[in-house]
Amino acid sequence: MGYGHTVPLSDGGKAFCIIYSVIGIPFTLLFLTAVVQRIIVYVTRRPVLYFHIRWGFSKQIVAIIHAIVLGFITVSCFFLIPAAIFSVLEDDWNFLESFYFCFISLSTIGLGDYVPGEGYNQKFRELYKIGITCYLLLGLIAMLVVLETFCELHELKKFRKLFYVKKDKEEDQVHIMEHDQLSFSSISDQAASMKDDQKANEPFVTSQSPTSNDSSLNN
Known about the structure:
It is a multi-pass membrane protein. GO terms for molecular function: outward rectifier potassium channel activity; potassium ion leak channel activity. It holds the Pfam family Ion_trans_2. The protein is mainly α. The chain has a domain at 11-161: Helix Hairpins (Orthogonal Bundle). Helix content is 75%, strand content 0%. The protein is built from seven helices and no strands. The protein has helices spanning 11-54, 59-89, 95-106, 125-151, 154-161, 169-201, 210-218. The termini are far apart. Mean pLDDT is 80; it is low at 204-219.
């Protein structure tokens, strides 16, 4: 998120920060993607499929209602309730400023104008910082799950198709014909090689001359 309140000052620290970011950011994205893909099966796909099969409701309607309910729960658990808690724990923050911090943090904007736990008179400051880190990590995963849930809606899939690059049918036909020609030539080459192998494995038969047959009959 990069609040900017803690930055490296030495050249070595800046170089280490660059290397760490180049390695850490892709692994963090892979980790979040793997976690979200596993969570969304139990949080979104199975509940929607259960209501669709068990009660016979339309799958699209169930998906829309589920996405709205999930979004409301996420906003309540990771925006409204934490904002109320921060407004109590932070002396200089009101509810709006606390909600602003939650939104800026979980949307990965990270302006850094509001950072909790910076007061030296803060009780249990280290534990407070660890709790904020866990909150941000869980909140970011919840936000990604909600976004993925909305992206799987049928209406949004139709909207996303408007931005897809359409391929020409002639190009597709050319690719199909080239693929068929390659596959046909490979099959013909295989058949020819199999015939050659069969001829090589056949036993060698010698034809008897007619003179030897006549001599055997005379005897």
